[in-house]
Amino acid sequence: MRGIDKSESPVLAVDLGGTKVVTAIVSRKGQVMAREYYPTLADEGPGSVINRIHAAIDRLLWANGVNVSELHSISVACAGAIDMSQGLVTSSPNLPGWCAIPFRDIMREKYGVNTYLINDAKAAALGECSFGAGRGVNNLVYLTVSTGIGGGIIIDGKLYFGSSGSAGEVGHMTIDVNGPKCNCGNIGCWETLASGTAVAREARRRISGGERSSLTETVEGRIEDITAEKVGAAAQLGDSLALDIIGKAATYLGVGMVNLVNIFNPDMIIVGGGMAKVGDLLLNPAKQIVRGRAFLVSAQAVRIVLAQLGDYAGVLGAAVFALQQPLRKDVR
Predict the structure, then answer these.
(1) Residue 178 in contact with residue 196, Cβ under 8 Å?
(2) C-alpha angle 116-5-105 in degrees, rounded to nearest 5
(3) What is the pLDDT of residues 208-250, one digit of tens each?
(4) d(CA 228, CA 198)
(5) Alpha-carbon distance 65 to 92, whole Å?
């Protein structure tokens, strides 16, 4: 990587989520040339998170012998609602305090290069459409099911942004009007019922209420250490409580998918994010719900598949997005 050809002009891509930050150097051909992971530590607030991102970018560039001037651009995929025209993170339920943060301009002023900002699920949709499970598919919905639930919508081969750039916030459609309160302030959002956060919360609640599970031994009695990943692993080993919790989450996942299938009539729904690692235990019940509840013609048309790019989807999509934009000449 050291001394790369400046004509390659790679993109420095950042994927900022509620629990982790991925920084990567991505070539124009979609090759991840280098990457690093860091915890978000979102509860420390925007200032601390942004400072850590700056430090992470600096370390990645230094470690790989890349100068900022060699970059095509910096492109950030961020969890939350994005005002595309202003480059603002307007709100982010899983990033406390991120309200009207001019993240694009902060990064542009710091590094003096063209900088772009896109929602993380939209970026992942672009990544999967360009290099993953959605290659060659013109109409698809990408879902990331992890800390929350996000979405990206591809219509006629193009990413759909809506009037202000915030289309695709599918995790905040109401599934249960009497459901739990969401971090966004609404009640019964999809992500309060089917996300990794919801799965972990339900496991902690039920075990604290006296139900038995191998998870208690897994976390050595520290119920607060139960995560969705641990619940998924326990389910795959046959733990009855974990299987029940994953099954209910899968049902809610399927109900939300029915809405998407009926509204968008997509060729494909791609499911990524941490919860996708549970695999068929999550997807098969959800598929059954879609087959049983969606309009027949739409249910027959859609394929529901797992994402292929894993943690690469966000940074690859952020890079694709940057490479699609016209370069500003007044930045460097």
Answers:
(1) no
(2) 15
(3) 999 999 999 999 999 999 999 999 999 999 999 999 999 999 9
(4) 8
(5) 34
Residue 329 confidence (pLDDT): 58
- Best CA proximity match to 201, nearest among 253, 160, 148: 148
Domains of the chain: 6-124+312-324 (3.30.420.40), 133-306 (3.30.420.40)
At 186, phi and psi to the nearest 5?
-85, 175
**pTM for the whole structure:** 0.89
32-40 own/partner pairs: CB under 8 Å, 24+ apart: 32/312, 32/315, 32/316, 33/1, 33/4, 33/64, 34/1, 34/60, 34/63, 34/64, 35/60, 35/312, 35/315, 36/60, 37/311, 40/16, 40/95
Distance of alpha carbon 101 from alpha carbon 75, whole angstroms:
16
Measured CA to CA, the distance from residue 80 to residue 291 in angstroms comes to: 30
3-state SS assignment for residue 154:
strand
pLDDT digits (tens, 9 = 90+) for 101-140: 999 999 999 999 999 999 999 999 999 999 999 999 999 9
Taking the C-alpha atoms of residue 19 and residue 39, their distance in angstroms, rounded to an integer, is 6
- Give the closest residue to 155 by CA, choosing from 122, 188, 192: 122
Give the separation between CA 189 and CA 54, rounded to whole angstroms: 33
Given a contact cutoff of 8 angstroms between Cβ atoms, the answer to whether 228 and 197 are in contact is yes
What CA–CA distances, in Å, run from 111 to 69, 216, 326, 331? 9, 47, 18, 9
From the list 46, 41, 44, the residue with the least C-alpha distance to 21 is 41
